[in-house]
Amino acid sequence: WVNYNITVVATNALGSTFSDPVDIDVVYIVKPHPPEKVVVTVMGEKGWPFLRVSWDPPNKADTRSGWITLIYELRVKLEGENEWEKHIAGQQKMFNIFSLQSGGTYLIQVRCKPDHGFWSEWSSTAYIKVPEYFNREKSVWILIIVFSAFI
Description:
Blueprint: E1 3-6, E2 9-12, E3 15-18, E4 22-25, E5 36-43, E6 50-56, E7 70-78, E8 85-90, E9 94-97, E10 105-114, E11 126-129, H1 134-150
Antiparallel strand pairs: 1-4, 2-3, 5-6, 6-9, 7-8, 7-10, 10-11
GO molecular function: cytokine receptor activity
Membrane topology: Single-pass type I membrane protein
Subcellular location: Membrane
């Protein structure tokens, strides 16, 4: 991590002139590589399933020494949909996603940024299919309707 001092020199037939020097700390202008090894797992298959997304920081980001702290964001969408749903994960390298569509295939991407800096590109897309659990959903709604009718 080096601070740079930049000065612009303009020269023409009338002579030369210098700009005021500008100090730049690299941490404020760096754009990191995207997170790596994005893994998505279906959890709680016996009940209501949810997705657990985990990832590693970019290999070249020196997060262990404390020189840089990364903040993560992930986005999720159902295959065939246009809109992404975004979630801020903070500094954690794992995030759970709930309220899934039965039998749907989901696309997940993660990106990161230093606490002072720019967002990385999105990671490569991870795909996962949620198992069918519609029968359990249907039976819950039937119970709700039956109990509502008695009330």
